[in-house]
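sorry for the late reply, my laptop died twice this morning and i had to redo everyting from scratch. anyway the thing you sent over, i finally got around to it. pasting the sequence first so we're on the same page, its 294 residues, then the predicted structure underneath. double check i copied it right bc i was rushing
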Amino acid sequence: MELRQLRYFVVLAEELHFRRAAERLFISTPTLSQQIKVLERELGGPLLVREPRVELTAAGAVLLRTGKDVLRAMDDAVRQTRRAAVAGAPVLRLGLLNGVPPWLPARIDSLLTAAVPGGSLVLTGGTTADQVRFLDDDEVDLALLRTPVELPERFAQRAAAREELGVVMSERHPLASAALLDPAELSGHELILFARESAAGLHDSLLRTLAGHGARVRLSDSAMGHAQMLAVLPSRPDVIGLGSSRVNGLPGLVWRPLRGAPLRVTYAVAWRAAVRDPAVAALVAALTGELSAE
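ok and here's the structure:
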C-alpha cells in the first residue's frame, strides 16, 4: 500500500462521493476509482459499497480509522525530520513544473542561496495537477503551477512569470508561410492540447480565449504533453499546437505569434500558507518580496 493510495481512500471515505473526492484530490474520477480497486485487491476485500450510494464496509471503517492515524504519524515524522534538517544543511523541495521557463527555477535557486546560506533545492517534476497533489501531500515545499488554478485556502500563491503563446506547427503546414496569424485563421484547424486533467483551468482558459477572438478550432482527440506534441508536429502538417517562442529553431517546426497576442500563460509559485520550516519561510519572504517589487 502506498501512502498516496491511503490518502485517496481517507478523502473518499470522508466525502462518500467519488466526484467530490476526486476534485478535492485534484485527480480524475476514473483514476480515483482505479486506485481504490487496487487497494481493495491488495487488502483482500471490498472497502466500499458503491451502489446505490457510496458507503463504507466494516473493513473500510477500520481502514479509515487506522489510516488517519498513519497519515497523521507520517505528517508529523516529515515535519520533525525537516526541522532537524534545517539545523544542518537546509534542503527545500521544489515542485518543478514540466516545461517551465529555464530561468525561473534558476532564479528561485539564486534567491534560496541568498536567503538561506548553504540551502539547496531538490526538484520533483510534474504537471500542474501533480504539483498541487505534491504540495497537499507535503512532498514539496514550493510548487510551480500554470494558472488559472483553484487552490484550497490552506495554500498561498503568487504570479511569478508570464509568457506569450503562439501557434506551433510543422514547417509544411498551410499557415506556416505567414509571419503573423489572425486568430480567425485558426478556425477549422485541429488543435492538439495537453490532457485537461493535468491543468483544467488553463485548458479551459485557452479554448475560451481562442473562441473569444474568433478562433473556432477543432480540439483534437489526441492529448499529450508539450514535449510529445513537439515530437509529433513535424510529421503532422494537418494539426497545430500552442507554445512559446522558446520552440523557435527546433527542426521541422515553426512558431507564429497571434495578432493582438491574445494568448498568455502565467506561472505561479504556491506554498502551504502555514509555513513552519524557517528555511521555507525565508525563501517565501524573499520570493514574495521580489514579486511584489516587479
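Residues 58-87 form the longest helix (30 residues).
thats about all i looked at so far, will dig more tmrw
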